């Protein structure tokens, strides 16, 4: 099967209302076989695990690639130089960023739009938006910049704006927008990075300003705090957001996505935290014990493995370093698994790395 | 199940608050209650211990103290004794290690604190053990006596069972009052030992205390350090650094940081008949306490040129680890440890793409991992929990250069080599910072009287008081019998 055919299949699949286990499985295996054939580093990886398309019978058996591999190898079915877009991770280890190659953004965009409409927009077609994140132009390799730009383009009214400039949050502009919403009663959506919301909350608090945004207003935050702002407890974060902007916590939606995927997960508001995240029918998640690769019993902590059919060019199945608990229809995201300290008196890898860094500096 | 940890001297009728630490393994769980003193209570404990150290402990002779410790250790070696049974039952739950590994480990370890070993320990450091009891004549003239501190505070850490005994026994041998902060990950053994000592010799009741507080409690630590003569600290460099920042310049601080150890295997030990034994011993060093000790190996450097190649050594090692997994299964890992282990392993799997001659051996459930590397000599820690690298080399010089930058982290090297190589290699390794050379299979059980991290266990604790010959001579003129 060639790339065009694959794209077409996925595109059709996404447009279906639902998919059963059988249909998902079928397409996942087709994709696995396509990727095994065309993605050379992935094939080597699979062969090392002794897994070939002939042996893999369900999507759960597809070898999952650790996200760090995106830093080490060009996981792509096409020549990486011909990719239309390359999304890179922001977290760097030793200055190396993980790269996700997209031959075209057709599938990514379709995945985002269908899903965003259903989970964030719901019954609204367009809403006036403020974006708390830099533009695509400023960050050409950021999947989040692309995601937010797409959101504004597809679902924002023409009066939607970016509220970030080179100095950070453009507070004047933001205040103007918030006042405008309060005065006119036109629902308003603020979307952006979680840490930008923290900066915004700090600014508004120092000005002593709070707002009551009109009904239908909503908030979308994503990405966590990533050492870019102070770390707030989730509960505190949503309490402050809700109290400062007058948006109910059930209209504060958190999106969970990673550069290495083409599909995002959402919760249905953050009335209580941690919330349950779910994705559309073209992505499925397993919660596993990283040592055995087996699923952990329901209700126990494990590590998330996502199988995203939107990832047609790289690898469908990735092993994250995010901890979670499987629930009836999704998973509770517990955040990134932190490194371990030494149990005994033998040095732990992290302490050693830190020391080595000091030596080489 | 509930167990009380800690030991307090008599500080009057006091309500002592406790903190409960919970441990679980295989569905069994145990709640350990540790004493959490108020500042006033802590100060009372310090005062009591210091007084008893001066009035009581210092009145014992060294050989009396040796006998008391020996009796306590004898009880712990007796598998029918109460504390030994508690240890065998509870420590596997608290630390997660396999029962048999703990049982064998305890016996091997406790044996090094019997009377004759303690005597050797004393002679090793002091030359003349009576130096702690009385002024002894010096070869250069004059007299000297070793005086132990009034109070030693021990900050213990880590889950290797019974590890706090080293410094606690050293403190007792120099007749110091001792306050130990029990490690959160194994708070029991030091407490049991304290109770046992008092059962053997009730007069010691006020000479020590085992307490607990949350690490990093700055105010508390500063106050305790202020009142201690010596502080012995165990832990990572970051936490040791923060202890040091709170240490008054007048308090002697002896930090023992986390260390990294490894093995070196000469081609002379790799004939087809002897190699399997070396591998067996090396594998034992790996499985004991799942490499959590500072003396546990992270890497084995194996020399080319023997009948058994380094690659075969790695495969034999894999075989041994698989066998051991059945007999002495690895501790259950937390999700954090599992992630760190699997991401370590994934990283190794990636390097195979660039270095196809490497090999990664392991079973399906990642209970153990052996990574074999050729033409790529380097030095990096393993993620532990039965993860070991075998790296091939030609000449010893080739490995030294990659190890030497990490001087301050080096400790034990397990060696299999002929006598000539042993001494030559020991010399080279010593120069780059290694402080202990031992046989494969002995890495995790240092001999009695070893020099922990190259230092003196007892000498570093004491002060030597000199009576110079001039004082002695001059005193003669004031003698009542002077003519």
UniProtKB/TrEMBL annotation, chain A:
Coiled-coil portions = none
Instruction: Quote any Pfam family the record assigns.
Output: LuxE
One biological process term from GO is: bioluminescence
UniProt cross-references to InterPro entries, sorted A to Z: ANL_N_sf, LuxE
Q: Where is the Acyl-protein synthetase LuxE domain positioned along the sequence? A: 16-351
Checking Gene3D superfamilies in the record gives: N-terminal domain of ligase-like
Supply the alphabetized keyword list: Ligase
Mind telling me what this protein is named? Long-chain fatty acid--CoA ligase
From which organism does this entry originate?
Domibacillus epiphyticus
Automatic annotation (TrEMBL), chain B:
Q: What is its EC number?
A: 1.2.1.50
Protein name (record): Acyl-CoA reductase
Tell me which UniProt keywords the record has, alphabetically: NADP, Oxidoreductase
Q: Name one GO molecular function term.
A: long-chain-fatty-acyl-CoA reductase activity
Spell out the family assignment given in the record's similarity comment: Belongs to the LuxC family.
Give an example GO biological process: bioluminescence
Q: Which reaction does it catalyse?
A: a long-chain fatty aldehyde + NADP(+) + CoA = a long-chain fatty acyl-CoA + NADPH + H(+)
Organism from which the protein derives:
Domibacillus epiphyticus
The family database entries (InterPro entries) matched by this protein are listed as:
CoA_reduct_LuxC
Look up keyword Oxidoreductase and say if it applies.
yes
Superkingdom, natural source: Bacteria
